[in-house]
Design goal:
Strand content of chain A: under 5%
CATH topology of one domain in chain B: Immunoglobulin-like
CATH architecture of one domain in chain B: Sandwich
Largest sheet of chain A: none
Radius of gyration of chain A: 19 Å
Order of helices and strands of chain A: EHHHHHHHHHHH
Oligomer: heterodimer
Shape of chain A: globular
Strand content of chain B: 15-25%
Largest sheet of chain B: 6 strands, mixed
Helix content of chain B: 25-40%
Chain lengths: ~180, ~850
């Protein structure tokens, strides 16, 4: 066991401050995508930064971005678990799952309105796919970073992303054709 | 055929990628592939490849546009900053891998044990939950990192039954600092946690102790290690250091670490760093309550009988001062995270915010009790629904003040210019005759139907798929038809529906076109998902487009409350409603249906919008809300009504507000006109009950330790005045005013038995009694369902609408249910030995 002491407060805070400014909105957005509640997302992100401040900078810095996302994710999932809302995370956000959306239904005007943006198509993805897509395209994380955040293996990330994209592309084509 | 096979053995076309290969996608996303995987795109797939790249670009653009610019508020930053104080030292525990494996094994075993037990209790949700947990643990164990692992012990799910407590041991990789310190939350499982920990930690006995000088102990006040505690608290309010080994530590700072180490055999045991997140601070009350609940349950489980009441109390007392410190520095979220209790299957998606019952308070320490009035009645209708279905309601669905306020009381109307009259009465408490029950009753001015200002109503109707049940949308239609029938020619009605997409089903129409309105109501169909946010925006727009000066402008939401607020999160939704209330457009929430009913959300929304909240469990109830009480529902005659009661310590030994748990205000809020509070509608009655322990009667609830700097001699204040029991102060604003008016009512009354009290007080007391029994309140004394029935029977009065008789019927049902309790009772024990 060893003990890590921290450097001067000013120095650490300046650094933390920079990190916060740079990453807060991404993290809040990400936590919101899990929690569906902006205020609680902020609570979680606040907690992430507190953890950051309490961490040894040298240990965190190299993997800063995946670290931040991972801590945020774990906490957000904890919140869901506590509130027994995990099922909401796992299921597509669009209640009526578009998993088996067909060309016929997509021509249905009402449905089309509900899913006429790519964003909504992404929302209709199952939890894991949605999350990976958001991390990749909204947050610009690499496969490896996504694997660090979510605990999936890199090849699993590749697999999930591949299928998510395939599905999205296919549905997007249908929407455009309709 | 796998790509891991190495280059030598590869067949030539292994280096070709087609569109079905995940690597194809990876390459399209410019992901660097390993050399061995750096394959060519087959000519036939080239087109598809470019298409995919193009699509990826589009997706990125679209998602980035949605990125948002939410920022942490200044106070949150302050909280983070104060938490980054360098004064504290951190410990990284690096266990040999066998230690963490052992710990993981113990945890897995425990989790499994708990899963089984939980399963035996027949609670399917908890079971699933535990499976998730076990999975986590398994995964954690499987990925344990080579020679060193960081150990995070998290007490999981401290919110429900003790049997569900579990500990997740997550070995994390070295580089991940998410677990740079041991973190444990306060909760019910303290004792078991320490048991488990000491088991898990035994192998670590030999580990060297870290910075013993930091082993500040926050123990009983008399045992405080004086200096370190002081500096500690003053420099970092966010952290509590506490000792795990109860009572073992004396006030000798230097010996503490060693003693603890040998005691517990676990190097980390000597300190416990508790981070108080905003959730936790907000939930501070709730945790204390939990501790008590734990006591009760613990006594049922001999295995953990060692956790004594005393030790828990000690912890509660420890937590208190630090919690209050935190209030200064930590940003409290505007809405504390609601907590969802385990529900039975039929209601397993219903959400109720946890209610922590008010405790007795000593008027010397807390002379003032401040709360916002609440005219909501939803809880009673919801409880009635449960009982009529033959199940006892979940504890947190029972809000006593809403049950009491469901009934109209024959309070006298105001004779002066004030919009409401105040009537105070006292009698002995039926559940504890030596205590006194004080009722504060408010009666809003009645308004003649003809005098009602014109109304501009926008119905915001949830037509999402979940509303298709026969008791949801069809009832919404019926209710709104009833209401439409009450509208005059100068009133306006509009209907906004929302589901996946929101739309205007009926533009604002004057109410003389009743046929048009009724037709539009009939046309509403359910289907699609819910995006409440967009619908609310549209509803407010319609309402403000047709705003009637000096009229009733109101958005009325009809939903099962299962909101998918989409891009608009709940925070901004409540802010929107709050903003709009300031412009004169008030908000009402009417709840329908069951199964996924989101009570907490509905209450929150209506509270913010100067509105009321009712639950429709039958068409009769719809008639009550939309026809009988329509004026009260629609017409606010006073807003932000706050009550502050000052108790006279020469008369009152202790007091307790019954109900209103989620309406409590800080004493400073009373005079703060910017603080929102409840509204009174025309003709409404509002009732609040206090239970008072008169001077001379010992209070069973233990009080805090004697103060160090104030002696009981300071109680010479007691000689100050009079035989008055208390003084009720009220503040309210006229519906369109920004400044409040103050009313004061000192109250003195000779003690009288409950039997001599007015019918209204007796009846209100019986309703509170039922509420306390259903909540299994620790203050319920020796009252039984039969007592409640007798009391209510004696207090029916004229009961023109039959509601009081119906109440008596409900109490009978509750009595029968609690007698056969067990099979379908709720998870917490409902004792009724008297039957």
């Amino acid at each position: 066991m060893r003990m890590v002491s921290k450097g001067s407060k000013e120095f650490e805070w300046d650094w933390a401050r920079e990190v916060i400014e740079l990453h807060q909105s991404s993290l809040i957005r990400y936590a919101t995508s899990i929690l569906k509640d902006g205020e609680r997302a902020k609570d979680v992100v606040q907690e992430t930064f507190i953890k950051l401040c309490r961490s040894d900078r040298s240990q965190v810095e190299e993997h800063l971005v995946p670290w931040l996302f991972r801590v945020t994710r774990n906490q957000a999932l904890d919140v869901l678990r506590k509130e027994k809302r995990m099922s909401r995370y796992e299921q597509p956000e669009v209640v009526e799952s578009l998993a088996d959306v067909s060309v016929d239904t997509i021509r249905d005007r009402e449905k089309r309105e509900a899913i006429d943006t790519l964003l909504q198509l992404v929302r209709a993805l199952p939890g894991k796919q949605r999350e990976v897509v958001l991390l990749k395209f909204q947050q610009d994380l690499s496969y490896k970073e996504i694997s660090e955040v979510t605990g999936m293996t890199v090849s699993n990330v590749g697999y999930v992303l591949h299928h998510a994209l395939k599905k999205l592309k296919q549905r997007w084509k249908m929407v455009e054709a309709a | 055929m796998e790509d891991g096979g190495g280059r030598m053995k590869k067949e030539p076309d292994m280096n070709k990628l087609d569109a079905d290969d995940p690597r194809f996608t990876a390459k399209a996303l410019n992901e660097t592939l390993a050399d061995s995987e750096n394959a060519e795109i087959e000519a036939s797939s080239q087109e598809e490849f470019e298409e995919l790249q193009e699509f990826a670009g589009l997706l990125e653009k679209e998602l980035k546009a949605d990125k948002g610019d939410a920022m942490l508020e200044g106070e949150r930053l302050e909280a983070i900053k104060s938490a980054s104080s360098p004064k504290r030292k951190y410990t990284i525990l690096q266990f040999p891998v066998w230690a963490s494996t052992l710990a993981a094994t113990v945890a897995v075993g425990f989790v499994t044990l708990v899963s089984i037990r939980t399963w035996q209790e027949g609670d399917s949700i908890a079971e699933q939950e535990m499976r998730n947990l076990s999975d986590d643990v398994m995964r954690g164990a499987a990925t344990a990192d080579g020679d060193a692992a960081l150990l995070t012990v998290q007490e999981e799910r401290d919110t429900d039954l003790p049997t569900e407590e579990a500990f997740v041991v997550t070995p994390a990789s070295n580089e991940s600092a998410s677990s740079l310190y041991g973190e444990a939350k306060v909760g019910t499982a303290q004792d078991r946690l320490s048991e488990l920990r000491s088991q898990a930690g035994k192998p670590a006995t030999s580990m060297e102790t870290q910075h013993p000088q930091a082993a500040t102990v926050l123990n009983e006040p008399s045992q405080q290690a004086p200096v370190p505690l002081d500096t500690f608290q003053s420099t970092d309010p966010n952290v509590i250091l506490r000792n795990r080994s109860r009572g073992a530590i004396q006030s000798q700072p230097n010996s503490i670490a060693a003693e603890t180490e040998s005691d517990m055999g676990f190097a980390d045991e000597k300190e416990e760093v508790i981070l108080l997140s905003p959730f936790q601070v907000a939930a501070g009350e709730f945790q204390r309550q939990e501790a008590k609940k734990g006591d009760f349950l613990v006594s049922n489980e001999s295995g953990f009988a060692e956790s004594s009441q005393g030790s828990r109390r000690t912890r509660e007392q420890q937590a208190q001062p630090v919690l209050s410190l935190n209030r200064l520095s930590l940003a409290l979220p505007p809405s504390p995270a609601p907590d969802y209790r385990i529900q039975r299957e039929d209601s397993n998606r219903e959400g109720y915010a946890r209610i922590v019952e008010n405790e007795f308070k000593n008027p010397l320490d807390h002379p003032l009790s401040t709360f916002s009035i609440d005219v909501d009645t939803a809880s009673y209708a919801n409880v009635r629904r449960f009982l009529n279905q033959g199940v006892l309601p979940p504890t947190d669905a029972v809000r006593i003040e809403e049950m009491v306020n469901y009934f109209a009381y024959a309070y006298e109307e105001p004779k002066d210019d004030h919009p409401f009259a105040t009537l105070i009465e006292a009698a002995s408490a039926p559940w504890k005759p030596e205590h006194r029950l004080v009722r504060i009753g408010l009666k809003g001015k009645e308004i003649e139907k003809a005098d009602r200002p014109n109304a501009n109503l926008v119905f915001l109707v949830d037509v999402s798929g979940s509303m298709s049940n026969p008791n949801k949308l069809p009832w919404v239609k019926e209710s709104l038809k009833m209401l439409t029938e009450q509208m005059g020619t100068n009133d306006r009605v509009a209907i906004v529906v929302y589901a996946g997409a929101s739309g205007l089903a009926l533009p604002s129409t004057t109410a003389n076109n009743k046929e048009t309105i009724l037709h539009a109501l009939d046309r509403m169909r359910s289907g699609g998902s819910t995006n409440g946010g967009a619908g609310i925006n549209l509803a407010y727009k319609v309402a403000s487009d047709h705003f009637i000066e000096d009229g009733i402008n109101r958005v009325i939401l009809c939903t099962d409350g299962d909101f998918n607020v989409g891009t608009t999160d709940q925070g901004s939704l409540t802010r929107l409603i709050e903003e709009k209330a300031k412009t004169g457009i008030f908000f009402s929430a009417i709840g329908y249906g069951m199964g996924n009913y989101q009570d907490s959300m509905m209450e929150e929304l209506s509270n913010r919008g100067n509105g009321n909240y009712a639950y429709i469990d039958s068409l009769q109830e719809a008639n009550k809300v939309f026809v009988e009480d329509l004026l009260g529902t629609l017409m606010t005659i006073a807003k932000d009504v706050k009550i502050q009661v000052e108790f006279n310590p020469t008369q009152v030994n202790a007091y307790r507000l019954i109900g209103y748990e989620n309406r409590k205000l800080a004493k400073e809020d009373f005079n703060d006109d910017t603080k929102d509070a409840g509204e009174i509608g025309a003709g409404h009655t509002v009732t609040a009950l206090y239970e008072i322990v008169p001077v001379g009667i010992e209070l069973e609830t233990p009080s805090v330790d004697p103060l160090r700097y104030q002696t009981s001699d300071d109680r010479s204040r007691r000689n100050a005045v009079s035989d008055e029991l208390l003084t009720v102060k009220l503040r309210y604003k006229e519906p369109d005013a920004d400044t409040s008016q103050l009313l004061e009512f000192p109250f003195a009354q000779a003690p009288q038995a409950i039997e001599q009290a007015s019918t209204d007080l007796r009846f209100a007391a019986s309703v509170a009694g039922l509420g306390m029994l259903l909540r299994d309140s620790q203050h319920k004394g020796d009252i039984t369902f039969s007592d409640v029935i007798n009391l209510a029977e004696s207090a029916k009065g004229s009961d023109t609408n039959g509601r009081r008789s119906e109440f008596v019927g409900l109490v009978r049902k509750a009595r029968d249910l609690s007698m056969q309790n067990g099979a379908n009772g709720r998870p917490n024990p409902v004792p009724s030995p008297e039957f």
